[in-house]
Amino acid sequence: RNVIITTMAKEVSADEQKDCFAALDTQQQSHITKDQVKTGVRALGKNPTEAEIDAVLKDLPEDISFTSFKGVYQNKFPSPQSQDAKARSILQILDPNSDGMMKESEFRQMISTIGEPMDHNEVDLLMEDCVSNNNGFFRYEDFVTLMVTGYMDHIVHNQA
Could you tell me which residues come within 8 angstroms of residue 51 by beta carbon, excluding any fewer than 6 positions away? Predict the structure, then answer.
């Protein structure tokens, strides 16, 4: 099977950046926190690691203006789309039967302990749209597509 992703990354306009900043600035004080900047950068389609974004934020004050937010956003952070092929190849290596399926319980254990560990609530949120079969296996290709596009309905299966 080939999996085709039907959406592509798009450029984020200045208006979209302003709208995102305004949505995060719930106190309407014309500044947001560093944690809100992280949320905004990711909401606008970039996927930095905590270390990558912390390195950019380290010299900024706790209260971030829109100008500083734009500066952080303009960094060359990877997008989920740019990480698609790497994620698929890593999961393929971890596929013991080379059938495109992984045991959900093993995958949950792995993502909660390796790299930037996730807590159980984060793992549950991440996995909520993945469908496991009766034996507890899920299609990791579908999982990667979901992570890249954000939507399961963007998956189109073609017989190869």
Answer: none
Is residue 34 within 8 A of residue 62, CB to CB? The reply is yes
| Average pLDDT of the residues of the chain | 79
**CA–CA gap between residue 91 and residue 141 (Å, rounded):** 8
CA distances from 98 to 94, 102, 145, 153 (A): 9, 9, 18, 24
What is d(CA 8, CA 1) in angstroms, rounded to the nearest whole number? 20
Q: What is the pLDDT of residues 54-113, one digit of tens each?
A: 999 999 999 999 999 999 998 888 676 767 777 888 888 888 788 888 888 888 888 888
* DSSP string across the chain: -EEEE-----PPPHHHHHHHHHHH-TT-SS-B-HHHHHHHHHHTT----HHHHHHHHTTS-SSB-HHHHHHHHTS-PPPTGGGHHHHHHHHHHT-TTSSSEEEHHHHHHHHHHSSS---HHHHHHHHTT--B-TTSEEEHHHHHHHHHHS-GGGEEEE--
